[in-house]
Amino acid sequence: MHLNGTHQLNATPQEIWKLLMNIDVLARITPAIDRLEPLGNDKYTAIAEVKLGPVKGSFTGEMEIADKQEPEHFTLRMQQNSRIGNVSAEGQIKLQPGASGQTEVAFTGDAKLSGTLARMGQRVLGGVANSLVKQFFKNLEDEIQANA
Amino acid sequence: MTYIGKSVKRVEDRRFITGKGRYTDDIVLPGMTHAYILRSPYAHAKINGIDTSEAKAMDGVVAVFTGEDVKDIAGVPCGWQVNFKNGDTMKEPPHPLLVRDKVRHVGDAVAIVIAEEREIARDAADLIQVDYEELPAVVNAADAVQDGKALVHDDVPNNICFDWELGNPKEEVDAALDAADHITTLEFVNQRVTPNAIEPRSAIGSYESAGDHYTLYTTSQNPHLIRLLMCAFVLGIPEHKVRVVAPDVGGGFGSKIFHYTEEALMVWCSKQLERPVKWTADRSESFITDAQGRDHSTKAEMGFDKDGNIVGLRIKTFANLGAYLSTFSTCVPTWLHGTLLQGLYTTPKINVDVTAVFTNTVAVDAYRGAGRPEATYLLERMIDTAALEMGRDPAELRLQNFIPPFDGVEQAGYMTQVALQYDSGNYHRALEKALEMVDYKKFRKDQEKARAEGKLLGIGFSTYIEACGIAPSAVVGSLGARAGLYESAQVRVQPTGKVSVYTGSHSHGQGHETTFAQVVADRLGIDIGDVEIVHGDSEAVAFGMGTYGSRSLAVGGSAIMKSLDKVLEKGAKIAAHKLEAAVEDLDFAEGKWTVKGTDKSISFADVSLTAYVPHDYPQNLEPGMDFSSFYDPANFTYPFGAHIAIVEVDKDTGKVTLKRFVAVDDVGNVINPMIVEGQIHGGLAQGIGQALFEETIYDENGQLINGSYMDYTMPRADDLPSFEVDRTVTPCPHNPLGVKGAGEAGTIGSTPAVVNAVMDALSPLGIKNLAMPLTPERVWRYIQE
Fold this sequence. Notes:
The complex is a heterodimer. Chain A is α+β, with helices and mostly antiparallel strands. Chain A has helices at 13-20, 23-29, 116-147, and strands at 2-9, 35-40, 43-52, 55-69, 73-81, 87-97, 103-113.
């Protein structure tokens, strides 16, 4: 399952980078994550309650921030496990400076589902995948405004 | 009283419609425990470790077992050996009860939790930690054979189970096609479907230490064969210590023929615990563990001369077998598929080449029709497409190429290019009847008018043959079957003339308790209420080879006929003694023996009473009236028919509406027309389901993505028109009832008729080969392109 999206934000790459590297903010703005607890080396325990159409479950797993190139791009890796199946996802986030202090944020990635989640959630999730990316940007925009 | 040929109401329906059916999951044994099987969420992954300690410690958990505990038990066997073209034995990797090294499909069994309650077992299974290392998966058969792809079984190169060939030498077929004036070439996928029996699978193992005796209750079409395979190949328990019961079974469609790992696992667990253990699948589990059907990718080429006569057929098929060999999975794409590629046609040169392939998906095995729908689909799609390409009428092109009528008595059976000898057939008559029923000439005029108005109206044909009444043991043995395919029947006449019949054929919807009783009551001239049909219990029934391949009446019914002959032969001796006449001077009719030309007679009940109270009795004759027989058929039976579908396609939405469906089936003699019609109706719905709605879809990681009824589309009543069914009767020349079998006809014939009709409807747009299922989305996309 592919996840793609770009969005213009009214902040500099540096400002956005700072927000994204704040773990509390990242947990708040990332759909399907409720809480991140640091494990060291940019790895975190990720906890979430997810409801996708007919399937509902509580996930625990790991999230990792890798390939950091401040303030241009980083990779987000996530492995979430639950009794209804597992999700592993990887996404690249790129920050491109634009005119008058704006930044274009691009997200490209893939998510793999397994088990019940794949059997019963895929149909629902396929449709909402890109709205999850949009949600991420929307949340990020709200954070920027709140910090402005 | 005559029962044969009458639509006697089904004896079994009273208990089914009043909720009194007794299915495996209804059975509750004293001290029974409940099992939950932990299954892999991955299609292909190495198991680096399993930690069951938390699950074991949970309150109410009785035991937890993993692959380590059952590592010394052989896996479930495959019942049919197919050899490579070069003579090597097929690759037959083990199918363990619980896996140890790696999982090979989503749903592969990793551990079993047994608890006092089902919910406890389920919750405890969540506490088991399995350390998986995910591996790349293969899903598509044609793709899985490429070099460098992931291997489902590390010791099976290129995932190839076997390659196989049948028919005329390839060079001869190549030459015939080279000389052809027209060649129709099509590539097809006969998509994977899920059988979806209404009753999920269930099994109870019960061990009694007092007698060192085991009982297995299971949802099976095939209880005796399960006992044989489980005892001899898996658990090594002597058969006389094992009873297998298949009580009421809520549909099978092939998926309950096979010996599944869960059956042996429940029996083994019950011995470890000395308590009964029950497992029942839920619907989601059925989607990832019941053997699935079809999944062929085929390239077909059919050559014609300038007059439209078929001159050759060349087939290359990749058959997806899934991750493990199921009981009959190897014979489906070979001996049940390749042998049917003659169809109804006089094609002089045929070559079929099949590569059977392992993938990281659920096992594929027989599903209603088993191989024959795949063969029929490709033949019938080819003929309709060829007609379109050559500007011929598809019905006429068929009639021109049909094998001429033969009854198998006066005229010999028809020897095909692909190893079979058809028993009897009149294919022209069936198609002509169907054409009359649709009023074909008028339809073509209506179609012209509809097209002028911009409507997409189409007609599709399918004229099929199937090999049923499976099967002569010597023949199937020479083809690799590891079992005989005869049937047994015991007829026990009780002292008062009531009759108990023990048949090895199992009923799970076919109506044996009615049809078989009609045969017995007619033959003995007694009331149908005086006959009881017993089936499905290895303790009661001597032996059986189960129900599949439309074999119940042709093989099981013939075994009953043999025992009835023995009953009547002995009865005549007793009657002759009582009537003081010679056996030759007696007639038997309407339940009594009469001395020819007199009114001296004795009833069947009086004779049976005499057999058990032998005071005044023939010398040297044993008392009692109880006969067993085994019947091994001389040949397969070959039902055939003509199906015609009329559809309209909505240009704007792509939705296909099935407006009419006409089916003329020839299943030989008919015992109960209503039951035959019911079988045809159900089969049509399933076949139409494959054409328009059903498809089991795996993503590229081997994840099943439509494993629920929200995602997998089954046909519903409002998707179907009122079927117009009729029949012709060409009796089977080689069994005593002249019957051919009706269980699979509907599924085999209907699918290509519907697809052909849609292609005919879309032909003004230049579309000639769409893949099934023809969902509105798929059709709409093609129309847009």
